[in-house]
Amino acid sequence: MNCNEFKAKVVDLFDTNVDEATLKECRAHMDSCPSCREYYEELRRAFTELEPRKTFNAHPTAGQRKPSQRLWHAVAAVAICLVGFFLGWSHLFTSEAHAGQAPAFTLADGMKCVQNVGSFRMVAYARTAPKENFAYFDPKADFVKVNISLMRQNDSTFFRVEKDGGRTVVCDGANQYMWTGDGAYDKEGKDANFLESFASLLYPERLLKMQDQVVCLSEKNKETRSETDSTIIITVEGKQLSGDLNELFARGKESLIPVVIRNVFSKNDGLLRSVNVTVNNVVMLRVDNIQYNVMMSKKSLVALPDAPSSKWEEMRPQPMKKRLLGRLQRMGAEEAAQAMLDDLCNGRAAASPAFRQYKPYLAALTHKFAGCKASSFTVRKKGDYAGVFVFYLLTRPNGQTEKSYICVRNDNDQHIWIADGGL
User: Fold this and answer.
1) pTM score, two decimals?
2) C-alpha distances in angstroms, 194 versus 87, 123, 134, 144, 185?
């Protein structure tokens, strides 16, 4: 029982016919809530003053009756009005009778409220590109609308995340599917990482837990709290790596830049309602209104594009010939990146397992790199990224040069180096 439920039932405590269950519930709540206990005592005193005075009559006549329930409730209503007048109306309608008495709402409380909701729907706006992966953000990009829907049913989770005019990820409880609208169709198990860090919005409790841990780990990270009549705002301020690749190449590391995450919870249910993420004073992501426990159709939620099953590229690790695996297992990161780019420049990429994630794009990549030469390799580690960035100088057939990079990683089941971005 919460405070509002208690105040809705408190009048029944003055009824001699109150049912035992309500009585026990209310008493248990008063034992743990000083605010409601004080409210009950004030109401009891007012009720006592207003209660009709009885004259003792051991043998009432037939025409005499006990005070009616209607009269009793009228008296109770007047008592409540008097209590409201003397204590202030806010005492009747909020869970906090006196400022500072109730424990402050925390990020941990927010986690508990959102982790068991049956479904939710939200619209996010991110500075990104429609067809880029979900981890890609660019402070100079326009906002792209991202529709997010999730439904929990029994022990399964179903969701749909789609960028306007671009990349979409769907989970049907058994597998995840991703497509970009340009002929690329990927499929993997339900625990696939298609959403990357964007998955924190799919599971808001993870986003809140991450912030809670950030504040606990360092005194340099700050948490502030404020309120309006209907909301609780918890703002977390910290630092993150800049993501500046020029800086990473030149210095071998990135500088730290300020990050501010503003979480808005509704007071009545403690649910997270909006999120605003600012990086280096630029709003990178905002979610204006999260709706919970909404009705939705599972069929529509997990609907896939009209494409034959043969079009879906299985992204789970596939058995490969040991001869092909050997060189990609023995190489270091720089040597692997050089071999991959050499294959691209000489039209051999289609036969290399290093490009299995790029299969739908290999024709375009082969055309782009045809006749080029890569040289001057520099390896850099970036933040907590599982792979490495390998910077290089690309020389085109006409002699023009440009600085570029390729991301490579080998944290897969077969420990082979694969291309993971930058191309």
Assistant:
1) 0.62
2) 55, 19, 8, 18, 12
